[in-house]
Write a structure and sequence with these properties.
397 residues; alpha/beta; Rossmann fold; six-stranded parallel β-sheet; five-stranded parallel β-sheet; globular
Length: 397
Amino acid sequence: MCAGGDVARAARLLRFLAGFDGAISTTYAHQIFAARPVAAVRAAATPPFLAATGLTDAVVDAAKARERGRRVLAVMPRYLARRYEVIDNLMRSAAQFGLEPREFDGFAYRDRPDDYAPALLEAMIAFRPAVVYYADLFENDVASFSPALAGQVVEVLAWARANLGARVVRYLQDAWRTAVRVGGDLYAGLGHCVDLVVHQYPGVLDRGEPAQRAAVFCFPTPCHLPPSTAAPGAIARACFTGRIHEWASPRAVWWVECTRLGLPIDWQVQLPDDTARAAEPPLSDQDYADRLRGYAVSLSLVSRLNGTRIMPARALETLRCGGTLLEERSPDTAYFLTPDRHYATFETLAELREMLPALIADRPRRRALADEGERWVRKYFDGDYFWAGLLDRLAAL
């Protein structure tokens, strides 16, 4: 309805459904119409991740010299032929760091799962990686569709640890979801087929025993996009670019209510069954970077179905491209960035309605935020700090 222009009816329907659906009701009560922040975020002078990881320029330089040439096998699904795949950023940043990366696309075996574990074992033996970076083991990879196949993959990884000396990293792209899922285990496989757990959700850093917490590296996946050629803020509007799906359903409420108020936001929304847009050529990395920088403001909506607030990849991407980020307030983002220095925040619809036009009109403030944010992201989140921290944590274990 919203995409078709029937915004008033869409808003009435959502408000009606809020009486029957807990997720919609929570979005309205604690985000859209909340009188005050649900959980205030205290901005630290220096984001907490630096103290937590102990990373400095000297540590990074030492790790680059020590680890040069180490082989890394990234076992990650390449879901779609689309712009921005996590695997692309990982491979680029690993090569930049001086490592020798190779990709194993698990999703290529979705139609022939019986070949998956043997092919993975063959790739291990041929490449003999020092580090295996395995995405979403036990969660969303090919092996998760069959307990028997999952067991085979576990044993392949355990064999590689024992016989090849490989260190296995379990990467959780959505650790917040693992933490809230019934039966979800952040530390599954640790000590048998897993050496280190990597995620970017600070909200679960206090989970587990001391030995388990020591085997965690909390850091965003490296962010690599080409330099934008767009004039910064040339489009005097905000842009939301993102997906609306089951876990990110609160975005639908924001979309409808912001549109109903006529806020200056262009919604580049991808819906779960958006067949019309799926037929269009995907944005190139360059087009995407130009969009994030060309708009005066990039709007980031971070709440998930259960009320959890995360830091989406788009936050770092916007800053990496020299754009201005306005984000729904989140303790996760404040763990890695400094609010009001690197980006601006809002809490409620009323606050967004007031802040957004003012920020669009205030070019000096927008450029100050964008410049500080870009410098910060290029220094800490382009990959060198990520790989130095990961490899140092493996060495410590």
